[in-house]
Specification:
Layout lengths: L1 H33 L9 H31 L1 H4 L2 H29 L6 H34 L4 H4 L2 H19 L1 H4 L20 H36 L6 H41 L4 H26 L3 H17 L2 H8 L20 H8 L6 H9 L4
Helix pairs in contact: 2-4, 2-11, 2-12, 4-5, 4-7, 4-11, 5-7, 5-9, 9-10, 10-11
Membrane topology: Multi-pass membrane protein
Main location: membrane
Family: Belongs to the G-protein coupled receptor 1 family.
């Protein structure tokens, strides 16, 4: 009987050791994730690069978009236009993105501050709301330009200020609800033992897949709207070649349409380049277990979304002729309050005063192509529709 017991212990001991090692390794992994250590994957080089991007892009994004918001809010004519309401919504979303993303990202990855589930999901909900509203505002801007070109005769009837405000209300309501669903209750059922997602603590993979699909649908609609606009521009460019008697005017108009196509192409290239890498990592996180290197690469790709928010004012707002004029007028008013106007007149005595019957100095912001567009306003073209209905220089 003693020999049988010894043989039984000899047979069972190796299996006992293997189970003990596996349990020890699992406990080590779970203990590191309890403090969110498994999500703090940046090494010193990555911290330097990503930290520099956030410290530079964050304040620049905040200042640019805050300037756009102030100009639109301070100009009565811009507040009445649906196009500028959409641009204002985009600027507001990018202001939130610069605040929420920069502070939470640096606090977590650089300063390694761990929050509880509620605090972390609240911060993540703010970042998600900002970026979702930014992409949604880009879609409304693209649809506005599509209607401006393809529904030129009935544009002002179809898209009124009331309908624009209603669409913005719907957009922000949907994005707020979707963004804070994990905080409400749609979170990882196992918590961090084990974690559901390797990119975001406490996040359910089903929710991550739904949000990523939602953003991809918005991006696809934006691409479709701009593709239809470019198709309209291409057709107009082809039709201009048939006007033999107006070769010079046609050449000028074709040049403006080529500028339109190049601008839209730049918008789409920047949009896809900034958003697609991060979305691909999110889709991969749903299906596979990401390594620490892939987690580190995702942290870098997520900063590209912040760079997209810093470029939006330059692509959508400050390219608008009326908004540039409003910015100059606002700066003149600020200088007048600070008594800079008198100093500027002393430095430039040769400039005509505003009391004369001469054109306003702000007319100097008009470019050569805009002057050509004014001289040929009788032509029915894509550029004319944009200038007459949207008053925007693309």
């Amino acid at each position: 009987m003693i020999c049988a017991a010894q043989n039984w212990l000899k047979y069972k001991r190796p299996e006992y050791k293997i189970v003990k090692v596996n349990i020890s390794h699992q406990n080590f992994f779970n203990s590191s994730c309890e403090n969110l250590e498994c999500y703090m994957v940046l090494n010193q080089t990555a911290k330097t690069i990503i930290g520099s991007i956030c410290f530079l892009a964050g304040p620049i994004t905040l200042l640019e978009n805050a300037l756009v918001l102030v100009v639109i809010a301070a100009t009565a004519t811009l507040r009445q236009r649906p196009s500028y309401l959409f641009i204002g919504s985009l600027a507001l979303a990018d202001v939130f993105a610069s605040l929420f993303f920069t502070t939470s990202f640096l606090d977590f990855h650089l300063f390694r501050h761990s929050d509880g589930p509620t605090a972390y999901l609240f911060k993540l909900g703010g970042v998600t709301m900002a970026f979702s509203s930014s992409v949604g505002s880009l879609l409304l801007t693209a649809l506005d330009r599509y209607l401006c070109i393809h529904q030129a005769t009935s544009y002002k009837v179809v898209l009124t200020r009331r309908r624009a405000l209603l669409s913005l209300l719907i957009l922000w309501t949907i994005t707020i609800i979707i963004s804070f669903l994990p905080l409400i209750g749609w979170r990882c059922p196992t918590g961090l033992s084990p974690p559901c997602s390797r990119l975001f603590p406490y996040i359910n993979q089903g929710y991550l897949a739904c949000w990523t699909s939602f953003i991809l649908v918005l991006l696809a609609l934006i691409l479709g709207a701009y593709a239809l606009i470019l198709l309209k521009a291409h057709r107009h460019e082809s039709s201009m070649t048939s006007f033999k008697g107006a070769a010079g005017i046609g050449h000028a108009r074709m040049r403006m349409d080529i500028r339109l196509a190049r601008t839209f192409g730049l918008i789409l290239l920047i949009l896809v380049s900034c958003w697609l890498p991060a979305l691909c990592f999110m889709l991969a996180d749903v299906s596979i277990i990401l390594t620490r290197t892939q987690q580190r690469n995702f942290a870098f790709c997520s900063t590209l979304c912040l760079l997209n928010s810093s470029g939006n004012p330059l692509l959508y707002a400050l390219r608008c002729r009326e908004l540039r004029t409003a910015v100059l007028q606002l700066l003149q008013r600020v200088c007048g309050i600070a008594r800079c106007k008198k100093s500027s007149e002393d430095l430039t005595p040769g400039l005509p005063s505003t009391e004369d019957d001469t054109p306003n100095p702000l007319s100097s912001v008009l470019t050569e192509d805009e002057t050509l567009g004014t001289r040929t306003s009788q032509l029915n073209s894509v550029s004319e529709i944009v200038n007459n209905n949207q008053k925007t220089t693309f």
